[in-house]
Structures are given as structure tokens and as C-alpha cells.
Amino acid sequence: MPPASAALQLNKIELSRPAFGGILCRLMQQVNLGMIGGGTVGSGVFHALQQNGNLMAARLGVKLAFRKVAVKAIDEPRPYPITKSLLTTDWQEVVNDPDIHVVIELVGGTGIARTMILSALSKGKTVVTANKALLSAHGPELFAAAARSGANLYYEASVCGGIPIIKSLREGFVANQFSAIYGIVNGTCNYILSRMKQEGAEFADVLADAQKQGYAETPPDLDIDGFDAQHKIGILASLAHGFWVDHHQIHTEGIREISRLDMQFAQQLGYNIKLLGIVKQVGGKKAGIQVSVYPTLIPNSHVLASVNGVFNACFVRGDVVGDTLFYGRGAGKDATASAVLSDVADAALDLRNGGKVRVAPFIAHASKGRVLPMDEIVSRYYVRLSVVDRPGVLAKISAIFAQSKIGISSVIQPEGHEGESVPLILMLHDAPNAAMKKALAKISKLPAVKGKPVMLRVESFT
Ligand code: HSE
Q1: Could you give the count of Cα atoms lying within 13 Å of 207 in the half-sphere of its Cβ?
Q2: Pairwise CA distance, residues 388 & 410, whole Å
Q3: 3-state secondary structure of 369
Q4: pTM as predicted
């Protein structure tokens, strides 16, 4: 005989000890939710719970119910309707309601959202957030507040939208040290780069079109200058390595400088260009981790090279599990709602079981963590120069690389007329970023070299 449904069994469970967070719950058959933010993602969360709330209740043994939703304006247009009687324009009503157990923060930004979360935690309420910018700027303060209050702060939706990467790193891979995490974590950049490759188009044209079609924000800076990816990769690095990575330590470059030419030459050499977040363990004398975001040449044979459009992907290498891959939608109301509700489910189980029954959302477990300065990071390089085609130019450039102990692995120079400016593409062997910077500074001063050299890093995933 199949067991009675979990929901029915739950009726018999009497929780005698206080649930964590100071909320006394006797028969915790229902967890009440308050949400701050009822726009695109908020309405997605509301809709998803309407759609699959019964399924979740059966799986969790506890019913989830919205009690209040704070919004900017009651009648603002939203993709899915939210029951009007739940709406308020005062977020404090959500935080102060003693019957609300879990607060979902979907306001975004680093201002009022911080006050909202701190206020909810101080009242012992579990908080679920999608706010990567806030975690990046104030993570240690927020997790310390959560620890003080005994409540949890969950943040699955902050990185890679619907991909359960936080839960996987935290729980699924709890037995692993992470030697490398590579992430395509910004859908806007991936969409733009994919179209540049497919259409042979220039960055500015694709960006303008993406904005017209609503794929890119206006202004797009947070995405295309790499800061959204920086927030996300910082969160992954902190979780994976057990110390909080300050966002100022994350070397970040965006995709503005990528041109159609680079896309074409990369293709000719067997690579694709992706904005890649990298968290890599570096051993030896100067041990530490690389945490960075920059446009990277990825060999076409690597699975991340074929992640296209708005999709996100994370490639995680654990010392026990080996290589793993996650792929999915990194944004959007439904994918993000899926992640928010997975956190709500964890929060509900914490409450039902009267305590923390899982690996805490963030634990600072590393006493000595070090983020390596970019100058110390060793990588391979793609360099595109504009040079005057005349005898001896290549020899001078090679000599500067040789002085800096940087080896050339291949060269492309499309045929041109002598005396004209032509592109010169060089692939270079492993070298520290500091040496590469110095060599390029010298090269750019050669009279035959016109304009600023383009330098992109190449990832071999070894
Ligand atoms: N703007 C982000 C992206 C989604 O393009 O991936 C939210 O972080």
C-alpha cells in the first residue's frame, strides 16, 4: 500500500519546540508568504504557486500561501494577475505581519531592499531574495544578520535564474572542493555575442536591436560592462570557497570592445567568444583563487562554446564528482519563479521541522582565502593588432614577446598591399597577465602599430 500523502501525515505532527527564527509554530501545516515586489518576477512567483501549489504541498507536506504582496502601485500592469485583496503599497505591512513566516524580496537594487531584508531578518523571518547586486555589495552584513536572528537568507534566484546552481554547490556537491567553475551567467551578453557570431554583425547594431526587442535593458551598462556577471560569479566563488569574495577583487571586463572582426578571427582559429565568469583554484607558492569576468575565447569543442542566445550555463569541476554541466534560462519571470519557490520550499521545510535541516545558505568555512590579483593569473591570449604591412614589423613584435618570455603559437595576417594597415592576429602561449600587459604597452608604441591592441584571453579548461 502506498503511504498516506505527506500532507495528511503532517496533520498528525505536533511541533513542540519553537521553530527557528523565533516563530512559534504548533501545527505548521501552512507557511505564510509575504512578497515585496509584484512586478515581472513577483507576478511569476505568484502565478507559479497558483499553478503548482498543490503539487508543492504534496511534496513538502506543508501548504504555502500568500498573505500579502507589497507593490509599487496596486494597478500597475503585470504579466500575471495577483489577487487584489493581497496587495498593499506598504512593504512594512509585509515585514511586520506576525503571521507571515517567509518574506520574498524582489525589489532589486542596493538601497531600500537592504533595509527590507534586514528588517525581516530582525523579526526572525526567513528571507528569500533574487537580489545579486545587494548580496554582492552587502553579503557579509546580510548573512551576519541572518545568523544573529537564527533565520535563513536564501538566494537561489540570484545566480543563473532557473538553474539550481546555488543548491547544487551547497548541497549536491557538499563533498567536493571546487577546482574550477566556469559560468556563462549573463543572458544579455550571451544573446548579443551569439547574434554577432551568427550574423557577422557589429556589437552596437546588435545591442540597439536587442534593446528594441526588449532583450537588453536601457541603459544596458550593468549587463554589457560585466557587472551583473561580476555579482553572480562573486556569489558562486564565495559559496564554493567559503569566504566572502569582495566584488572589488573581481577583475571585470565587459563585451563593448568585441568587434565583428574578433568574432570572425576567433571562428577561423576554432574558437567562440563568450563572456565567461571564472572561479579557479590556483596552487603553488602563490596559492589562491582566480575570480574574474571577461570575454574569453572558448574552443569550439568545449560544451560551453555551444551555449547560445539568452541561455546561461555553469560548468563545475569538483575534486570528487569530476566535471558537471548546468544549462537553462538565466532570467525571465517563470525561470526565476522556479528558483524563488525552491528557496521558499527549503524555508518551509526548515519551519516545519522546527530547525535548520540543511546546509546553511552561506557558511564562511575558510579561514584563509585569497583572491589572486589579475596580474598574477596565467592564461593564453588572442591579440589583434592593426599594423602597417612592411618588412620587419612582425620580427619587431615577436622580439618584444620573446623578451617578455611569451611564446607565439600561431599568426594570421590576411593578405593586403604592402604599406597598408592590415590586421595581425597572434595566439600566444601561457603567460602572466602582468607580463602580457607590459609587452603590449611596448608593442603599441611601435610606429608600425596603429590604434589600441585588442587582447582577449583564451581558456583551455584544463
Ligand atoms: N540581466 C541579466 C541577464 C538577468 O541578462 O542575464 C538578471 O541578472
Answers
A1: 18
A2: 19
A3: coil
A4: 0.92
